[in-house]
Amino acid sequence: MRILTVLLVCLFAASASAAPGDFHYVDTLQAEVREGPSADAEVKFVIAIGRKLVEFQRKGDYMQVGIDKAGGRDGWIRIDQIGPTDPDGLTY
C-alpha cells in the first residue's frame, strides 16, 4: 500500500509540473485531436503514437497542443493519451 501511495504522489507531481511550452508524446496507437476540450467536440484529425506535441494550455481532462512539424496544426487531446517520453523509450 505504501508503494502505491508513493507512486501516485510521484505521478501527480510529474503531471502538476507540466506547463505551457512543455513537450509531450502521443503514447496510444492513435489519438483524436479535437476542436475543443470535450468528447463532444468535433474531431479535427487523428495522430499516431510517437507524435511530438507542445503544450499550450489545459482544461479538465484535455490539453491544447501544437503538433510538431505539422504546419501550425493544433487542437485538444485527452491528457491520458500522452506522456513525457517518446514511446521508443528516449527522453528528449
Write structural notes for this entry:
This protein is of the alpha+beta class. The protein has a domain at 20-83: SH3 Domains (SH3 type barrels, Roll). It has one helix and seven strands, in the order αβββββββ. Strands 6-5-4-1-7 form a five-stranded antiparallel sheet, with no helix packed on it. The protein has a two-stranded antiparallel ribbon with strand order 2-3. The longest helix is centred in the N-terminal third of the chain and has 15 residues, at 2-16. The N and C termini lie far apart (32 Å). The model is unreliable at 4-16 (pLDDT under 50).
CATH structural architecture of one domain: Roll
- The helix fraction, in percent, is 10-25%
CATH class of one domain: Mainly Beta
Rg is: 14 Å
> How big a fraction of the residues is strand?
35-45%
Short description:
The chain has 1 helix and 7 strands. It is of the alpha+beta class and 92 residues long.
Keywords, separated by commas or semicolons:
alpha+beta, 1 helix, five-stranded antiparallel β-sheet, two-stranded antiparallel ribbon, SH3 type barrels
List the helices and strands and how they pair.
Elements: H1 2-16, E1 23-26, E2 30-34, E3 43-48, E4 52-59, E5 62-67, E6 74-78, E7 82-83
Antiparallel strand pairs: 1-4, 1-7, 2-3, 4-5, 5-6
